[in-house]
What does this fold into?
Amino acid sequence: MRFSFFDSIITQLVLAVVFAVLSVSSYLRLYPDKNPITINLKELPGSYSLRYQKNCFGTIQISTELTDELTTIQAEGELRFKQAGNTQQAKVQGEVNFNILGQFGNAITTFTLGDNILRVGALGINPIEIVIRSSQNNKNTFQREFEIEGPIQGKRINSHFLAIEYKHLNPETRSLPNLGFTIEKLDVRNNCEGDVLDIENFSKTILS
It folds into this structure.
C-alpha cells in the first residue's frame, strides 16, 4: 500500500527529526560539559541500534575515511516504522566532511521511502547554508533554505581523535530532552529485531 503525498512528507520530516535528535542529543548527553566534543575515530566505526523507549526500530553502520586533506564520517542504515497501520522501512544515508584546516565543509543526509526522497544538506564554512528538499518520482515537492552562523570546527588530534567545536551553540540546548531516543553500539547481547517506531504516536508526543 503506497502512502499519500501528505503521509510521505510528514513521515519523512518526522524521521528527519528523529535522526537529528539522535545525532545531536546523544553526544550532548555523553559530553554535557565539554566543548569541544572529542570523538574517538578509532572506536567510532561499527553497527549501532536506534531505540525509542528501549524498542529498537533501526540500525545504522558508521564508518570513517581519513586522509591528509579530509576527515569523513559516513552513516548508512534502515529505519522501521508504522504509519496509518502499515509497517514500512526507510533507508538513510549520511556523510559529513571536515577540510584540512579542521573546518566543516559539507554534510548531507538522505532518507529514501519508496519513490519519496528527503535530503537535508549543509554547505559552507561561515555562514553554513542548510537546504531541505523533498522529491517524489524525481519531482521536487518541497524545498526550504536557511543559514546558520559558522564555523563548525573539526580538528584532528593525532590519527585517532576528532575535536568538534561550535561556539554558537546555545547552552540551553544541552538540557533539551532526547524524547526517549538512544543510540547504542550493537553486539551479541544487544540485538535489534522486530520493533517499529509508530509515527502517529510519536508525532502526538512531540506536538503535545
